Amino acid sequence: MRVDKRICVPAAYLRERIVPVSFCVMEALVFMMIAALYDYEGVLSNMTYALGLVIFFGCCCLLWDYGKYRGKYRILTKLLSAEERGGDLPQTVSGMEQAYQRIIAVQETEKKALITQLDEKQRSMADYYTMWTHQIKIPLAAMDLLLQNDWEDEKWDRQTVKRLREEVFKTGQYVDMALHYARMESISSDFSFAELDAGDLVKKALKKYWILFSGAGLALHLEECHSKVVTDGKWLSFVIEQVLSNALKYTKEGAVSIYGADASGQPVTQNGYYLIIEDTGIGIDKSDLPRIFERGFTGCNGRMGQKSTGIGLYLCRQIMDRLGLSIRAESERGVGTKVFLGIRQEPILTKM
Predict the structure, then answer these.
(1) Given this model, what pLDDT does residue 3 score?
(2) For the CA atoms of 332, 335, 341, 342, what is the dihedral angle to 10 degrees?
(3) Do 128 and 82 sit in the same domain of this protein?
(4) Domain-embedded: residue 40
(5) Rounded Cα distance, 334 and 323, in Å
(6) What is the spatial distance between Cα 133 and Cα 135, in angstroms, rounded to a whole number?
(7) For a Cys-Cys bond, which of 40, 167, 197, 308 suits 298, CB 3.0-4.6 Å?
(8) Is residue 290 part of a domain?
(9) How confident is the model over 282-305, as a mean pLDDT?
(10) Residue 302 pLDDT more than 50?
(11) Counted domains in the chain
(12) Which domain holds residue 57?
């Protein structure tokens, strides 16, 4: 919440004290008028002297009161900022201010109770999704095994079985996406960092996606990439798999290339800045490119093919940000898309 910097504290103070100050000024003027009307034996001069003393001590009291007011105002403006919020409100003897503070305390208690309830609901929902995804994978695995056996026994047409296995695999990927989306709020508690080889993560993803590659009829150009990255293997693998899934989904002919690259985008086999997944698919419109990582954004490709949910790349951006890595894309309509996964990390220096 932003604090209004245009507030003039002295002007605000005078507005709040205008009634007592005006009353004191009017009272002094009345006494001076009466003394002037009934001036005898130096009464006016004596009253002027007394009035001067009263004005002097009154100004001193007013300055003291203004100092307290300004100090209280500074405390309240600090409490408005996010980093200072949560501290105690300044003490006051004003009954009205105490009433306001009690109202704020009650609202804060109610807010914390609502947040606690919301957190519990989110945890319950995440637990449900976790349980559901684990349970649904059992029949999916059984279906895939049955289809594989039927393929080997030649009970069904091979092409039909292959298509069915591809759809079962895609269903499993959507289940994984739902699980990762449900865990997004508590992702930090699920991290387990280790030094990993980016090339090994790519090979595991390709092994998992071999069934889609075999059915897509695309060439695979895989260059060696032995860049080391300190990260969580499970979450980074999900990002690689999601980008690979998009490349297969939107590429009808040509090839998918995976390689490491330096800071300028030139291929390297070791110590690369980027892991690049490139396809020769339909590409992305220039107007859509800046928004592809937004939640729910499907763009022209999604509207045409009605295949996109607008969640996959959004999850990729969120995961990479929380892993301390980067992701960006370059694309040209009708030519293809390059996705740059930033895997280069600066060394951490520690003092002995």
Answers:
(1) 44
(2) -60
(3) no
(4) yes
(5) 32
(6) 5
(7) 308
(8) yes
(9) 80
(10) yes
(11) 2
(12) 9-91
